[in-house]
Description:
Elements: H1 11-62, H2 86-89, H3 97-102, E1 134-135, E2 144-145, E3 149-152, E4 157-159, E5 190-194, E6 199-203, H4 216-224, E7 228-233, H5 242-245, E8 246-247, E9 258-261, E10 264-267, E11 269-271, E12 285-288, E13 298-303, E14 308-312, H6 317-324
Parallel strand pairs: 3-8, 6-11
Antiparallel strand pairs: 1-2, 3-5, 4-12, 5-13, 6-7, 9-10, 11-12, 13-14
Amino acid sequence: MKATLRNGFTLVELLVVMAIIGLLIALLLPAVQAAREAARQTQCKNHLRQLGVALLNYETAHGRLPPSAVVDLSVTSTSNNGSWGVHGRILPYLEEVNLGRRVDLQTAWDFQQAIHGVRVGVFQCPSDPESRRMRDPGSGKVSLYATNYGFNFGTWFVFNPATGNAGDGPFYPNSFLRLAQCEDGTSHTMAAAEVKAWTPYMRNGGPVSMDIPNSVEAAVKQIAAGAQHKTTGHTEWPDGRVHHTGFTATLTPNTFVPFDMGGRTVDADYNSWQEGKNGAAGAATYAMITSRSFHPGVVHVAMLDASARAVADQTDLAVWRAMATRDDGDLIRGK
């Protein structure tokens, strides 16, 4: 009786096939991930362009750029500012006309149900895993999604309510600047840059020094002066304060600023005093709100001419600060 021959794989052949398939997957996965990240970066830059165009349309309609907040300097005692920031003021120019009509910019945003649980996609970067995490502040206030784009508050000093003096960026309380007042030119001055949602920060302690920190070590000393630690930076897009809707060019993009917060080392920001808190009796605001992103090696920014570009982490600090100032005369060529 003849033996029956069976066609099939030997164990060795099967292992070889599996090894080849594994190798192909190992080669393809990085390419797929890179393609996805490239698509996310394109979408992120498009969001920033839309913000830039909205600012220009706002300026055309009102003759001025929107302020970061409106602060009544005749008031000497208030626990909260509540003033709408740039994000809320440009809603009608972001294809959010209906939402823009439903909000009242003359009334504090905290309890306006029109924005409760509303996610404005153009405010969020697709690469930030925390961008879709909603914040519920309690006390009957509205719940909000985070924002990944902060408007440019300059380099360090933001605002002094006692004197009305303000910093060197195009946005600060009661600013209402004309584009012509950004004398360095719209193509040389940043309008907005990426920030990370749910950033830890310290606030309300006053600066160790009014001099701008020029190193991470100096930055950590400033942060240590804060009286309150929070983990909710960039989680309230309607709020006009710098730690929620802004950034400063104190440090270069994606600089890691280690700070021990409750026994955990975090990458921290700093605001010496909340703008508008206690009105004219409040302290001056100095802020170190670093531009950060989840894109490897870069952050994306929008210029005041509505162009968008990637800025490398290794950018020289002097160049980065010059891009943040509106009228220091230091033009950045070739950017």
